[in-house]
Design brief:
By secondary structure, the chain is α+β, with helices and mostly antiparallel strands. It has helices spanning about 1-10, 15-25, 25-30, 40-50, 55-65, 120-130, 150-155, 170-185, 215-225; strands at about 75-80, 95-105, 110-115, 140, 160-165, 195-200, 205-215, 235-245, 260-270. The chain has a nine-stranded mixed sheet with strand order 3-2-1-4-5-9-8-7-6.
Length: about 270
């Protein structure tokens, strides 16, 4: 219980869990018998090191499902994270890397799957999806999860997907870039698409986000000529432009020399473009 509450409040290593327990000792005494006080960080590490990760993950997911209720269209973000301070050099065990599913509306971790390294997320993500019941949700994953089998698994589970696409996806990434480059020249008004723009300002910097989603069947056939991407309904391009505000002396509001506006472009595939 101590570890669970600590992690829910942002702790991500055994030392932080111990410190959280000590800070909330009076509160924990209302529910737990702690004759020897809050366990040390070493004790937390040893206890969790003896647990079967797969069984623990399954039990955790079942408990979360019993206390949470996903809403239609809720975004579930799947991402990997390496926990700080959890390695065990004496036993030759490296830091624990977890792939987690985060429900953005409920603000709750729905499930986690441990994996040996970041490169193994491709195999860990399908295992995590098997633990989850996500009908009607939108599952977002970074480029590591942009795989045909993962997209198929999400659709088979009654959910929708939004998958980031990077250059290591080869032909898929290039085809999406080609489609957007073509219609940027020709004019987006000549192809089925949607567009949204968001402008904001924070810490003396302006940020402009623009999103195009192309849904034209002919363009999607060019992106996926073999039709292997399950329920592919759109491809998206999001551009980020950060503009640094200058004072009258030509410097930024924090006194530093102004920088040039920075641009960043990202591409996505999606099964539910709206």
């Amino acid at each position: 219980m101590i570890a669970l509450c600590a992690v829910l409040c942002g702790a991500d290593n055994w030392v932080e869990i111990e410190e959280f327990g000590k800070a909330k000792r009076e509160w924990f005494d209302r529910f737990l018998k702690l004759p020897n006080g809050i366990p040390s960080h070493d004790t937390f590490g040893r206890v969790f090191g003896m647990l079967d990760p797969e069984q623990f993950a399954a039990c955790f997911s079942q408990w979360v499902a019993s206390v949470s209720q996903l809403v239609q269209g809720e975004v579930v973000a799947i991402d990997g994270k390496t926990l700080r301070g959890c390695h065990d050099r004496s036993n030759g065990r490296g830091a624990l890397h977890l792939v987690s599913a985060w429900a953005t509306e409920n603000r709750m971790v729905l499930g986690q799957t441990p994996t040996a390294a970041h490169s193994n997320e491709i195999t860990a993500i399908p295992e995590l999806l098997q633990l989850l019941d996500l009908p009607g949700c939108l599952v977002t994953i970074d480029a590591m999860g942009c795989q045909k089998n993962i997209a198929q698994q999400i659709v088979d589970g009654g959910a929708e997907y939004l998958l980031a696409v990077k250059a290591n996806q080869g032909e898929l990434h290039q085809n999406i870039k080609d489609v957007f480059a073509c219609w940027e020249r020709e004019g987006f008004d000549q192809v089925a698409h949607s567009f949204q723009e968001q402008v904001g300002r924070d810490h003396g910097r302006g940020e402009r986000r623009r999103c195009w989603v192309i849904t034209d069947p002919e363009e999607l056939a060019y992106v996926d000529p073999t039709g292997q991407w399950a329920k592919l309904s759109g491809v998206a391009r999001i551009s980020y432009r950060r503009e640094y505000c200058k004072e009258s002396d030509g410097k930024e509001s924090d006194g530093k020399a102004p920088e040039e506006a920075a641009d960043e472009v990202r591409y996505y595939t999606c099964s539910h473009p709206t």
